[in-house]
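Progress narrative, work stream C.
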Amino acid sequence: MNDAATEAFVSELKHWRDVRGHSQSALARAMGYHRTYISKIESGQERPTADFVDRAEKALRTGGALLRSFRDVDDHRRAAEAPHEAQQPVRPPTSDGEAGNLVLEHDHARLVYEDGAYRAIQRRRLYNAGDTPVTSYLIRISVDRHPGSPELSNQLYRENPLTWAELNLTASHEGRDPMVWRVMHDRDAFKELWLLFENDDGRFPLYPGETATIEYAYTVSEHKWGQWFQRAVRLPTRLLSVELDFPADLDPAVWGTETTMTAASLPLRTAIRRIDEGSRKIYAWSTDHPPLHARYRLEWKFRANPTGQEGDAVSMSPREAMRSLGIVQDDDPQLRQPTRPFDLPAEAEDARRAVAQLHATMDRVAAVHTFGKGMGLAAPQIGIDRAVALVRTPDGETFTLLNPRVIEESPETDEQYEGCLSFFDVRGMVPRPLCLEVEHQDIDGARRITVFERGVARLVAHELDHLDGDLYTDRMAPGIEPIPVSEYRGTGKTWHY
C-alpha cells in the first residue's frame, strides 16, 4: 500500500493539516473519525476511502487538492487490479505542474533580508518528462511569524493579513517573458496560485522533452515573516539549493533540519556553507536527489540585531518580549489546566510536532536572553495542552520529557530564585527537592527512568508543574512574594550550591 500515489496523498494530507494547524486528534474530531484512524492513514496502515477524503476535504478546505490526489490513489488501485494486459493509465495526464509530468533539474531559492523585509526569489529549471504540454505550475506562499504559537500568528494575520500589494509578486519565463497567474486560495497567511505559461502577448507551453527556467519572487516584511524558510519536495528533483543573504553587521547564525515521511526531524545531512561578501553574509546549502515529500527547513537568528524581529523583543518589557516570542502569559487560563498525555506510539506524529514547536520557540527565546542556569519550556506555554516539556541544561544538553511523572524525590531540598517565561518580570524564591527520579516515554512508547539532580532537577520540577497546571508561585512559602526582575542579581549566573 506504500505506492507513490498513496505516499503523495499522505503528504498532501499532512501539508494541509499543517496549514490549518490541526493535530491528528483535532482533525479526527472535525471529521467525526476516531483519532487513531488519522494516524493509521498517515502511517500507511489504512487506505483512504472516498468518505474519508470527502470529510477531510470539508474539514481542511483544500480547494479540491485532496480530491485530486485521491483520484491518483484510486487510479493506481484500479490499474493494479486490472488484468495485466490491460494495465495502462485510466485517464490521460493533465497539463498542470503537480501531475507528475515535471522533473525539477534544479530548484534554487534565494532569500534576501534588507531594510526590514525579506525578498524570496525562486528559480526552477523544469523538464517535461510527460507526453503532454505543461501550461501551468503550482506555487504556494506561506508565512508564520510565531511558529509554535498558532494563537499569536492567527491574531497577527487576522488583524494584518498578507496582501498581494505588499507581496509585489513577479514571475518570468526564461528571464524575459512575464508570466500571469490564477489565484486558487487567498488566505490571511497563505496563498496558492497557478503560474501560467502565457501572457498578454501569447502562450509558451513547455512541450514534452523540453526544458525551461521559470522564476518568481515576492516580498514580506519582517513583522510577518518568522525566522525560518522551508522547502518541500513535491516533484522529482535532481538538485535542491538555498541561499540566505543577510547583512553581516546583524551577526546571523543559521542552522537547519530535514524531515522525511519515515523519519523524525534531523539535522541537515549536508553542511551549510558561509560566504563573506563585504557587508553581506551568504549561507548556501544544497542536496542532490532529495526524496519526494521531504521537507528542509533553515532557521536563523540575528545575534546583533537592535531593531529587527528579535530586537523588537529587546526593547520591550520582559513580559511583552516573551509574549511577542510566542510564550503564553500567566493571565491565560490554559496555564492552569492539566495537560493530556500522548497515546504513544499511536500519537507519535503529534508528539513530534509538539516537540519541534517547543525546540523552535526555545531557540527564539534563547536568542534574546542569556540563560546561565539553563532553561525549560512546557507545551502549555506555547498553547499546546499536551504532556511534553523540554529542559536544556547550562551545558546545552536537552532532555525531552514525554508523559513524565515523578516517581521519587529526595527529602533534601533547597531554596533558590526561579523565573518563568510566562511571567518574566519577576523572580521568586522556591523550595525544590535536590534529586528527582522521573519516568517518561520515548516517541515509540518505551518507558525510561531518568535521575535529575540539583539545578537540573529544579528545572525539570518547574516544567512538570506546568504540565499539571501549576506555577512556581504555588510552591513559595506563605507570605513570600516574587521580586521585580530589576532587583534580581542572578541573571546569567549558574545555580549556587
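Work stream C, second folded protein:
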Amino acid sequence: MIQRIQTLFLLAAAVLSGLMLKGELVRMGTDAGTFFSIDFMGLTDSRGEVIQHLWPLTVLLALVPLLALISIFAFKRRTVQMRLSMLVLLLSLGTLILGAFYVLMFDRKIDITVMWTVKSLFPLVSAILAWLAYRAIMKDEMRVRSYERLR
C-alpha cells in the first residue's frame, strides 16, 4: 500500500537527493583566494564555469532520487521495492564515498581548505532513510507471509 511508512522514508530520501541536484555540495578554497566547488555539473570555479565534469558523480546524483521514486510506486511488488530500496541505499553511500574521493584527489593536487556544506550530509541521511524503508518493507513482507501460512 502506498500509504505505509516506507513511502515517507523513500519520499524523504528522494527529496534530499533531489535537493543535491541544485547548488554546491562542497566548497573549497586555496590560500591565494581562489574558490572551487563540486556540484551536479562537476568541479566549477568561482565564476560558475565548469573546470572538469565529474560524470560518475553526476550519474549517481541523478539515479538516487529517480530510483527512490520508482521504488515508491513499486508498492505492489514488495520484493522489487526491497531491491530498489537497497540499491538506493548503496548508491547513496556510493555518492558519499565518490564525493569524498574527489575532494581528497583535488586536495592532493592543490593545497585547499574544504568548507563542507549541509548538503554533503544528504547522501548519508538518504542512505539511512533507504535502510529504514527497507526494514519497513521487510516487516510487511514477513507479515504477509505469516498470514499466508495461516490460510
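The two ends are 21 Å apart (CA to CA). No further action is required on this item.
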